[in-house]
Design brief:
238 residues; two-stranded antiparallel sheet; 39% helix
Length: 238
């Protein structure tokens, strides 16, 4: 299965047979391979292999050896018990639109997927940390702080994968490589948070309908803009 054209409207659940698209969608896997097999900020090619047994995506060269996994990074909290009282107040057509959009290619990332010293991977760490709760904007703030050598709730998890994050040189390089410019300001010094950010001290889950609507709008805006970037890039390389 070799894909050249990326459909930014494609719902990755449609070829996952009821399983997690991160592991089961063959189309998503090919999208990742096509998008992220390209020159790094330093100029060297980061070519991904999807044929290595036991690995989702794989790279080995003088740059190092990397085992990457897919991660859905747009958390709708659609099925979370703690947010059901909020979700019930959102019009169904609006909720379905957000939920479906989250499953398009713009709602996914790749992170190192190999466990080191039996500790949590990036995906696992950002999911279980109560200061992050799977929020991608907060994950991005942790990555920004990592490049500044500042501590954060995910610093140790990110630091375990120094070799991967060093490929992108700095936060700007990371954002540009993964087409995340719409989640940061123009000079890459600040993350555009989905909700007002006061440090990692408050519960990151939206507290009421008003907060959820702001959170949802900002997520939708980000996914749509990232999808547009992905589409423009795909047309350039076709």
């Amino acid at each position: 299965m070799e894909i050249k054209r990326i459909d930014i409207t494609f719902d990755t659940r449609s070829d996952s047979k009821g399983k997690d698209p991160d592991s089961a969608s063959k189309t998503l896997k090919q999208y990742h391979k096509l998008l992220w097999s390209k020159p790094l900020p330093g100029g060297k090619l980061f070519r991904l292999d999807d044929k290595r047994s036991g690995s989702y995506l794989y790279h080995k060269s003088e740059l190092g050896e990397f085992f990457l996994s897919s991660d859905s990074v747009i958390h709708t909290y659609f099925r979370w018990p703690k947010t059901q009282h909020i979700i019930a107040q959102v019009p169904k057509d609006v909720m379905n639109y957000f939920y479906t959009l989250a499953w398009t290619v713009g709602g996914f990332m790749v992170f190192p997927g190999n466990s080191i010293n039996r500790k949590h991977t990036m995906n696992q760490a950002r999911g279980i940390n109560k200061r992050i709760n799977d929020r991608f904007d907060l994950t991005m703030e942790c990555i920004r702080m990592y490049y500044q050598d500042e501590t954060s709730p995910l610093f140790e998890a990110i630091k375990r994968y120094d070799d991967f994050f060093s490929l992108f040189v700095d936060f700007k390089g990371y954002c540009e490589f993964f087409m995340l410019q719409d989640l940061v300001n123009d000079d890459y010094t600040r993350v555009n948070f989905f909700l007002p950010f006061e440090g990692f001290i408050s519960n990151p889950i939206p507290r009421d309908l008003d907060e959820y609507n702001v959170y949802m709008k900002n997520n939708i805006d980000f996914i749509k803009k990232r999808n547009q970037r992905i589409d423009a890039y795909n047309k350039q390389i076709m």
